[in-house]
Specification:
Length: about 475
């Protein structure tokens, strides 16, 4: 084999090259990357730290900042070994560096680049890179200014990014809407960052419906300051009460008599109509009571203790003038006064026959109910037909409540009532009970009867029962036809 033609690509050459590379890598790692210096370090002087006033004084001692791969603390650990004040800040989440410490992928050199020359700035931030939300204010809503140009750090921070004057917010936003800002500052103060975080968590895009108190009905158009009175922080906003009474106590027409749970009757759509469920109260609204206005019973906004008896409200409308007492419900229902349920059968004058359908006022004239006479003649004057024959005798001796006729006479009668079958009174007494006639049934010829009786010497032939008291012929015993 001709090895001269291979040059360095001999086994020995390859071994030597490998050893050289390995030595270079090891030296680089041990020296912290000394072979790869990208440029000069910053020469700006500062407070002495471990005997150095600037990075440029490190010279070629790369290992002071660049740690070998086995050092788990890495370059950031070496930064903090010198900048102990920054290490202390990072343990406090309220500080700028403490906020950044919560971002694992953020390192010191992301904000503090080096090797850019002796006069290059050691702090360089851009709005596109800087995790602004870590300091409590996101730039999501501030990508561009009102002119449409991207925001620069100095637009808000001036020349020192470590400070921020909240007057900057007011100055900028007054140019957008001066009237809104004037009112807003009066309502919520001028510490903008106490409530605003850059993404309008509590701004124009704030969704109140994500919280316990949704804005519905008329609440949707109410200014924030009406409920969040004198709120100056997010904690103040969150502490606003969510019950109705806290805001509406001064408007309560019930004066607290219905308690403080306004939502039991009302909705955000408006105070009226009210949805109070009266069926849950001691006095249920039924019949005509269901359409009565609240103030008709609850006079002067008095709710608790309102009487539930009928007479307390209807005494002035009582047609009975108190003669039936005060228990209206004994006869009437909420459906209406006309639908009377009084059981007359429980009195000493039960209603039967034609009395059942009569209006109460037919008997109870002038609203007299108690001690009203139950005698028939109290309502039914004696007709001329009786001609005074039955004064003092009860009508029900002959009549019943179904009708005046037919009548059934039960008193003493000088003439047999079974004469002629079931003839009624008018058969014999067509005009009056004081006079009678037999011609209503018997087909006598008056002239023949006259001649016959005169022939027998009977001149009083019109008084039939004088000779025929039983309806029989006085001698023959047969009916007088």
């Amino acid at each position: 084999m001709n090895t001269s033609r291979l040059g360095c690509l001999t086994p020995a050459g390859l071994i030597a090259a490998g050893l050289t590379v390995l030595i270079v890598v090891v030296i680089t790692l041990l020296q912290g990357g000394v072979l790869f210096t990208p440029g000069d370090l910053n020469a700006q002087s500062g407070s002495p730290l471990r005997g150095y006033t600037s990075h440029a004084e490190f010279g070629r001692q790369c290992r002071l900042c660049h740690a070998p791969f086995w050092d788990t603390a890495g370059m950031a650990g070496r930064c903090l070994a010198c900048h102990t004040d920054i290490a202390l800040q990072m343990s406090d989440s309220e500080t700028l560096h403490g906020a950044f410490a919560q971002t694992p992928d953020l390192t010191c050199r992301d904000c503090h680049p080096e090797h850019r020359g002796p006069n290059a700035p050691l702090t360089e931030l851009t709005t596109a890179f800087f995790p602004h939300e870590k300091v409590g204010f996101s730039l999501a809503g501030h990508a561009v200014n009102q002119n449409g140009l991207p925001f620069a750090c100095k637009d808000c921070h001036g020349e020192d990014i470590t400070v921020f004057d909240q007057q900057t917010c007011q100055t900028c936003h007054r140019q957008i809407n001066v009237m809104f800002m004037t009112e807003h500052l009066l309502s919520f103060g001028n510490n903008c960052l106490d409530c605003h975080d850059g993404i309008d968590t509590f701004g124009n895009d704030f969704d109140h419906n994500r919280f316990a108190f949704s804005l519905e009905g008329q609440h949707a158009s109410v200014p924030c300051s009406s409920c969040h009175l004198n709120a100056r922080t997010v904690a103040d906003l969150r502490s606003a009460p969510v019950d109705c009474f806290s805001c509406h106590a001064q408007d309560d027409p019930h004066q607290g008599n219905f308690g403080t749970d306004c939502a039991a009757c009302h909705t955000p759509n408006g105070w009226l109509p009210a949805l109070f469920d009266h069926s849950l109260a001691a006095f249920k609204l039924e019949g005509k009571h269901a359409t009565v206005k609240c103030e008709s019973c609850h006079i002067n906004q008095v709710f608790k203790g309102t009487p539930t008896d009928c007479f307390s409200c209807h005494a002035q409308d009582d047609p009975h003038q108190g003669n039936f007492g005060t228990d209206c419900a004994a006869c009437h229902t909420p459906v209406g006064w006309e639908l009377v349920t009084f059981d007359h059968n429980l009195t000493n004058f039960p209603l039967t026959g034609a009395h059942v359908g009569l209006a109460c006022t037919r008997c109870h004239v002038n609203n007299i109910f108690q001690e009203l006479s139950t005698a028939c003649v109290s309502c039914h004057a004696e007709p001329a037909y009786h001609a005074g024959l039955f004064i003092g005798i009860q009508c029900d001796n002959c009549h019943n409540t179904s009708a005046w006729r037919p009548a059934t006479f039960l008193g003493p009668h000088t003439f047999p009532l079974n004469h002629g079958g079931s003839a009624s009174c008018v058969t014999c007494h067509p005009n009056a009970l004081t006079a009678y006639t037999c011609y209503g049934c018997h087909e006598h010829d008056p002239q023949k009867i006259r001649a016959k009786h005169l022939e027998e010497g009977i001149s009083d032939f019109a008084n039939c029962i004088a000779c025929h008291p039983t309806g029989q012929e006085h001698e023959g015993g047969g009916d007088d036809d």
